[in-house]
């Protein structure tokens, strides 16, 4: 049973897109598959870059690795956002009330802010520590936060079916 929610969530759940997502045999599973591919493309490169910031694969310059990996994360983000919106509209009041969904969204938002702060601060000085085995403390802290936040978001995404 769908919990009652704010009017806009109920309206969203009754929209043509939501009805399509619920009624079309393959729409929801296809959106889930695209969402998973998006998560892999978004988080996989982020984890690889975070590990570099923590000192693994130190022979790779951080800026070159960022140029290679970050476009894949952006593509993954686009897939996650589009497929996530499609999944959300199909059960908007239910997902909006889910504690796992709320924590997932908080983790995703915090991960995005962490990446924004990293790129506006620590990464701007990357030319000085590009090939260093041990990047500055701010970069390492951002990497640890990124790993924790993306891990939380993924775990909460999986828990949404159970909580």
Helix content: over 70%
Instruction: Write down the Rg.
Output: 18 Å
Strand content: under 5%
Q: Structural class of the secondary structure composition?
A: mainly alpha
The dominant shape is elongated
User: What is the oligomeric state here?
Assistant: single chain
Major pleated sheet: none
Contiguous helical run count: 8
Pattern of helices and strands: HHHHHHHH
Return the average pLDDT rounded to an integer: 95
Stretches where pLDDT is under 50 for at least 5 consecutive residues are none
Characterize the structure shown.
- The protein is built from eight helices and no strands.
- It is 77% helix and 0% strand.
- It has 163 residues and is an all-alpha fold.
- The relative contact order is 0.15.
- It is elongated.
- The chain has helices at residues 7-13, 16-23, 27-53, 62-90, 92-97, 99-120, 126-129, 137-159.
Sequence-ordered SSE layout with sheet pairings:
Elements: H1 7-13, H2 16-23, H3 27-53, H4 62-90, H5 92-97, H6 99-120, H7 126-129, H8 137-159
Helix pairs in contact: 2-4, 3-4, 3-8, 6-8
Which characteristics define this entry?
mainly alpha; 163 residues; elongated
Summarize the structure.
By secondary structure, the protein is mainly α. The chain is 77% helix and 0% strand.
């Amino acid at each position: 049973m769908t919990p009652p929610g704010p009017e806009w969530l109920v309206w969203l759940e009754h929209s043509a897109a939501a009805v399509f997502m619920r009624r079309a045999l393959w729409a929801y599973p296809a959106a889930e598959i695209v969402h998973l591919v998006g998560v892999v493309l978004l988080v996989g490169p982020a984890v690889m870059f975070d590990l570099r910031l923590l000192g693994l694969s130190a022979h790779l310059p951080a800026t070159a690795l960022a140029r290679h990996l970050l476009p894949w994360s952006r593509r993954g983000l686009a897939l996650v956002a589009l497929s996530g919106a499609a999944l959300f509209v199909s059960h908007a009041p239910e997902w909006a009330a889910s504690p796992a969904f709320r924590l997932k969204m908080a983790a995703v938002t915090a991960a995005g802010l962490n990446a924004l702060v990293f790129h506006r601060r620590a990464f701007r000085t990357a030319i000085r520590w590009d090939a260093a085995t041990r990047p500055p403390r701010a970069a390492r802290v951002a990497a640890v936060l990124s790993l924790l936040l993306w891990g939380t978001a993924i775990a909460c995404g999986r828990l949404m079916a159970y909580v």
